[in-house]
Amino acid sequence: MTDSVTKLNNYLQRKQASHTLSWAENSTGPSHAIKWTVECKVSGEVKGTGVADSKAAAKEDAAKQALKALGIA
C-alpha cells in the first residue's frame, strides 16, 4: 500500500470504521494504454476519484482526495 492509502486505512481503524471503506475500480482503453479510474468510498459515499496509468497510482490519488474530503490531510 502507499502512503495515503495506509494513512486512510489507519485513520478509519482508529475510528473503528474500517468496514466503511470500499473501492471501485474500472479500466478503459486498449491493453497497451490502459487508464485506471478508482473511486474511494466511505460509507458508500465517494470521497475521492483517481485516474492514472496504473491502478496503484489511481488508488493513491483517490485516497489522497478522500483524506482531504475527511479533513485529515
From TrEMBL:
<dbReference type="InterPro" id="IPR014720">
    <property type="entry name" value="dsRBD_dom"/>
</dbReference>
<feature type="domain" description="DRBM">
    <location>
        <begin position="3"/>
        <end position="72"/>
    </location>
</feature>
<dbReference type="GO" id="GO:0003723">
    <property type="term" value="F:RNA binding"/>
</dbReference>
<protein>
    <recommendedName>
        <fullName>DRBM domain-containing protein</fullName>
    </recommendedName>
</protein>
<keyword id="KW-0694">RNA-binding</keyword>
<dbReference type="Pfam" id="PF00035">
    <property type="entry name" value="dsrm"/>
</dbReference>
